[in-house]
Amino acid sequence: MKDTDTLDIPTFGDVIAAHERIAPxxxxxxxxxxxxxxxxxxxxxxxxxxxxxxxxxFKVRGASNAVFGxxxxxxxxxxxxxxxxxxxxxxxxxAGRRGIPCHVVMPHTAPEAKKDAVRGYGGIITECEPSxxxxxxxxxxxxxxxxxxxVHPYNDPRVIAGQGTCARxxxxxxxxxxxxxxxxxxxxxxxxxxxxGTCLTLSHIAPEVxxxxxxxxxxxxxxxxxxxxxxxxxxxxxxxxxxxxxxLKDLTWHFVSNHVTDIxxxxxxxxxxxxxxTWQRMKIVMEPSCAVPLAVILKNPDVFAGKRVGxxxxxxxxxxxxxxxxxS
Length: 328
Known about the structure:
Elements: H1 12-22, E1 31-32, H2 35-41, E2 44-49, H3 59-68, H4 72-76, E3 79-82, H5 86-98, E4 102-107, H6 112-120, E5 124-128, H7 132-146, E6 149-150, H8 157-177, E7 184-188, H9 193-205, E8 210-216, H10 221-228, H11 250-259, E9 262-266, H12 268-282, H13 288-299, H14 301-304, E10 308-313
Parallel strand pairs: 2-10, 3-4, 3-6, 4-5, 7-8, 7-10, 8-9
Antiparallel strand pairs: 1-2
Helix pairs in contact: 1-3, 1-8, 3-5, 3-8, 5-6, 8-9, 9-11, 12-13
């Protein structure tokens, strides 16, 4: 882990600049509520629906900020990344809007819906094994061959600043239409890009709001890192929440270790049950990774009782032929 003094830590000014830069390329996604889910959870929840975002995920915010922040000379070589899905298709979307190449390393186990979306946006896929070591090894070869600008899925100040626009947007929407501020925000954590952006924004505009990260029990390296006080990285965890299999890195760890209140975990069955419940009651398409926040809220009623809770639904790119409750 790098010393904090050597990290390129984004500022809230970077979030504001990112919001202006990416405005033509993103949606201002809605905040939805459910009286049924509120009664079930014992708290008042406000769901920030990034599943309705361009490219179907919040990651288009950070990807667009990185792509449209490149100089013309940098952009000519294109961009490259490794990703299990949503960052890959988001970067492909942004690169396509700028008219530059996008090279993506994806695990061969990534959902076909996400691979199809990457190709649909013009991304060029190179497959790897479903482990952090494999994706980084294959990516190194791809970048060496292309010379493209590396846009890390989450450990990149441009990406974190872009993701920070989600919380900024949500807090404005709470004031405009939902009766004022939140007590806490819950978002999924894998590599920590969304959580880091949330920390960056809220630490400046609403430091009183608690930030809770939600993680699968079977990919709980962030929770174990949080308890240990240093990064613990698993190479290839196995969970239905495919977007949360990657470990924290030095930049995201900076935000997690300094600003996150707690990291709570949920079992595979609890995640699937929460996903199905949201589909049934809110009538929206969401990924298993997005169900982890609701799963931990339902699992820990004492933590959230009577609170106003923001819940980030991070994406909606689902393989409809392989829904988890359909698997034998």
